[in-house]
Amino acid sequence: MVRKLAAYGVNNRLLNVIRSWLRDRKARIVVAGSQSEEFRLSNVFFQGTVWGPPLWNAFFGDASCVLRSLDFTVVIYADDYNAFRFYPRCAHNRLIMSELREFQCELHKWGRGNQVQFDAGKESLLIMAQDDAEGDSIRLLGVDFDGKLRMTGAVRECVDEASWRLRTLLRTQRYHTDAELLLLFKSHILSYLEY
Predict the structure, then answer these.
(1) b (16+ CB within 10 A) / e for 111-150
(2) Rounded to whole angstroms, how far apart are CA atoms 48 and 164?
(3) pLDDT by residue (tens digit) across 30-76?
(4) What angle do CA 129, 142, 79 make, to 5 degrees?
(5) Quick one: which of 81, 193, 56, 83 has its CA closest to 141?
(6) CB-count burial class (<10 Å; 0-12, 13-18, 19+) for 100
(7) Tens of pLDDT along 145-177?
(8) In this predicted structure, what is the pLDDT of residue 49?
(9) I need a surface site. Which of 31, 52, 74, 176 has the fewest CB within 10 A?
(10) For residue 178, what pLDDT is reported?
(11) 78-126: per-residue pLDDT in tens?
């Protein structure tokens, strides 16, 4: 990480501060007064800190260069990494999947060079098209997208979640005035539906 920051032009004085901040730490997990054995944290960006997000962005930023060189549009949100490319309708799925695998291979090469392992369970290749979609649905920022963009899975999930919330609220109606029920509906059900 420090070498990457030096390559970005960060001065030596600040590099020394960051190097000190990144050194190994000892930690414990505490739950309800009980605590775990002490363990070591090393080679991590500490979450919930001021330095964590900018250091993560600096570390992961050059992966985008690799993928943009392959004409993919890259979208990064925290540690979620998504890339896409538009193809003409006449392009065959075999060609598209081949290029997607090449993209994935290049990203994995970057990962090996930077000591990053990607979670295979979170990786997917998907061709979105109304008539010839291919691949499993993907989850982006909590919403399921199917290849044909019919959104049936996302709608079903929304209906199921809103239904149990509404049933739960209606079971408590004898304890609340109409005005209170309306406020509870707005805060617990309507806000979810709007999200």
Answers:
(1) eeeeeeeeeeeeeeebebbeeebebebbeeeeebbbbeee
(2) 33
(3) 999 899 999 998 877 777 788 888 888 888 878 887 778 888 888 87
(4) 95
(5) 81
(6) buried
(7) 888 888 888 899 999 999 999 999 999 999 999
(8) 82
(9) 31
(10) 93
(11) 677 788 889 998 899 999 999 889 888 988 998 898 888 888 888 888 8
The predicted pLDDT at position 65 comes to 79
Contact call for residues 149 and 138 (beta carbons, < 8 A): no
Interacting residues of 87 by C-beta distance below 8 A, sequence separation 6+: 96
Q: If we measure between CA atoms, which residue out of 59, 127, 44 comes closest to residue 93? A: 127
| Predicted structure pTM score | 0.65
Residue 19, both tokens:
């190097």
Secondary structure (3-state) at 133: coil
Q: Tell me how far apart the alpha carbons of residues 56 and 48 are, in angstroms, rounded to a whole number.
A: 12
The HSE-up count of residue 79 (CA atoms within 13 Å, CB side) is 11
Contact 142, 158 (CB under 8 A): no
DSSP, res 46:
P
Pull the structure tokens for residue 10.
Answer: 């960060």
Q: Map out the domains of the chain as residue ranges.
A: 1-44, 45-136, 154-194
Pairing relationship of beta strands 30-31 and 143-145 according to DSSP bridges: unpaired
Instruction: Spell out the alpha helix ranges (H) of the chain.
Output: 2-8, 12-22, 52-68, 93-113, 152-171, 178-185, 191-194
pLDDT recorded at residue 142: 79
